[in-house]
Each structure stands twice: as structure tokens, then as C-alpha cells.
Amino acid sequence: MAIYLSFFGLEKDPFGVTPDPEFLYLTGGHREALAQLTYAVQEQKGFILLTAEVGTGKTTLLHALRSQLDSNTAVAYVSNSMLPFSGILEYMLEEFEINKPGETHAQRLVTLQNFLVERHRAGQNTVLILDEAQNLYPQTLEQIRLLSNFETTKEKILQILLVGQPELRVNLDRPELRQLNQRIGLRCSLPALSPGGTRNYIRSRLRIAGASDPQIFTDRALARITDYASGIPRIINTLCDHCLVIAYADQTRRIDREMVDEAIAHFEAGRRPRRRIRSSHRRMRSPRLTALQWGLVGVTAAIIAAAIGLAALDPNLVLQVYDTSTTSLSSIARSAMDLLRP
User: Fold this and answer.
1) How many Cβ atoms sit within 10 Å of the Cβ of residue 81?
2) At a CB cut-off of 8 Å and minimum separation 6, what does 293 contact?
3) By the 8 A CB rule, do 35 and 41 touch?
4) Per residue in 203-221, pLDDT tens?
5) Largest pairwise CA distance in the chain
6) What pLDDT, in 10s, does the model give residues 243-261?
7) Contact 120, 157 (CB under 8 A)
8) What DSSP string runs through 177-239?
């Protein structure tokens, strides 16, 4: 749970990194993609393709899709795209809760086919979702294509949803995958958020999280976030979370553009940078020094005071003292300044 929730009057984390359908923000493009996926599954189109850039909310949309499917639809969701086909098959059988899948690869395929046929006869639908499918090897994709041979003369009894980054489309254009490419019954994609969509996305998530103040981010802060994130929800979430942490540390409930710049620097460098004092009401914090450190500071001050006194008596004497103790004096002074530096 985020540390800043109570400070901002929030009931839940508004910018979590895990896909949560409760926070699904549907632009026109997202609504169209969700409607297309739902239609393709219900109408048993066989192969379905969804592509989008990294961080645009593909996985969140998939969870929303699953929540819209009725109880007659069984779903196997495979997120580990590095599995070989045998691993994917085993994962499917486990997801479909098939207790005795068989010992050999052939027996498992027969078990899966019988399971699909029985469900189809009962008027039930079955879906396999392969997330991050751009990582699948061509031979694995070809074996997945063969699963589409489980069909009747009129309908596909297994719906296969391939989900991935734009590279997936490039992979499917390979000559050895042309049969799979030709079998895709529906293709859709997710667009990045528009500038207006980014602002509404942030305010929507704050509202869902219980924020009573919709203006936590100033207009200039929202403009900077919009410019930096380029409509990618994952970047927006991470950046907004950084901003809220910084605001909580500063005990301020309004996030301005300078805070966003600071969060961007933190986001890119992995650490919170030393920042300037932004307003007169911000108090300077004195460094906490040990007794030894305070003693070192005192010695330096005494040396400086003595030098001033000597200068009043004889400037040449100061030069003589300086010549004999330059190293120690500069070393002490540097140490003292390092201790006082914030």
C-alpha cells in the first residue's frame, strides 16, 4: 500500500503497476478493441490478434475481457511466452482443470481434443490467451496453429487470442508462418492516449481511488506529464506515483511542474536528486553533526578568525602562516564545507 494514501485522502493506490480492471480507462480506441475481442470470442472466430506498444494496457484489457465473458466460457491464460509448445499444452490442461491429461505428448493432445469437443456439444466456448506472444518461437507458433484443426465443419471449438507488441505482426509475416497469418479471423490494436485522454486518465484514476480533490496535479504538471509519457499508461502511472511520493515527503498537497521534472529525473536516474529550495516558506534543515564533526568546524572557524586578526597586525605574517600550513588549513576547510553541504 502506498505511503501517501491517507495524506491525500485516497482509499486505494491510484497508480499501481499491476493490471486492475477496476481502473480500466476506456478511450474510443480501447472500447473498440474490447468490443472486437468480445465479438470474436463469442462468434468463435478462431485466431484473434491484438497488438499494442509496451505499457498501453494490453493485459488490463485482457482482464476486462475475461470479466465480460459468461460462465459458459473457459479461459486458459498463458503469460509465460518463453515456454515451448509442450509447456503451453501442459499449462492449458492445468488451467482447464483436466485431472488426467495423459503421460505422452500425443495422449495430452487427444485429451485436449476430447475436452474441447465435449464442451462444444454442451454449447460452451473455450479460449486460449497467449500474452507477450511476440516472444514465441516460429516453431511454437506453428504448433499452436495446428490446434486450430480442432474444429467442426462449421465452427472453431478453440478460440486462440494472440496478444503482443507490434513485433508480433512482423513475426507473423515470416514465410514459414503464412498459414497461421492467413487464419487470423480478426485483428485489432490499442492506440496510445491523446493529450486530453492522458489528463482524463489521471483524473479518472484519482477519482476511482477516492480523491476528494481532483486538482492534486496542476494544469502545468499535467502538461509536463503528457509531454513526457507520450500517451503510455504505464509511464504515466510510474511518473504520477513518483510525484505523489515527493509531494508527501514535502508535505504539500499540490503537485506542480517542477515536482514533475524532479520525478522525471528520479525516474530516469533511479534516485531522488538534490533539489533547489522552491519557495520562501520552505525551511532550511541543519545537518546533524557529531561532536567530533562540530569540533572540526570549530577549529576551522578559529583558524579563520586568527587569520583575520593577523591581517590587522601584519599582512606579511598572514602570508607566512599560510605558506607553512596551506595543506592542513585547506584540508580542514574542505572537510568542514563537506559536512555543512546538504
Assistant:
1) 18
2) 339
3) no
4) 999 999 999 887 899 999 9
5) 111
6) 999 999 999 999 999 999 9
7) yes
8) GHHHHHHEEEEEE-PPPPHHHHHHHHHHHHHHTT-S-TTSB-HHHHHHHHHHHTT-HHHHHHH
Angle between helices 219-229 and 257-269 (to 10 degrees): 30
C-alpha to C-alpha distance for 329 and 304, rounded to whole angstroms = 9
**Phi, psi for residue 42 in degrees, rounded to 5:** -65, -35
DSSP bridge partners of 50:
163, 188
Determine how β-strand 73-78 pairs with β-strand 159-164: unpaired
pTM of the entire predicted model: 0.73
Phi, psi of 57 (to 5 degrees): 105, 25
* Strand ranges across the sheet with 184-189: 73-78, 125-130, 159-164, 47-51, 184-189
The angle formed by the CA atoms of residues 151, 165 and 182, to the nearest 5 degrees, is 35
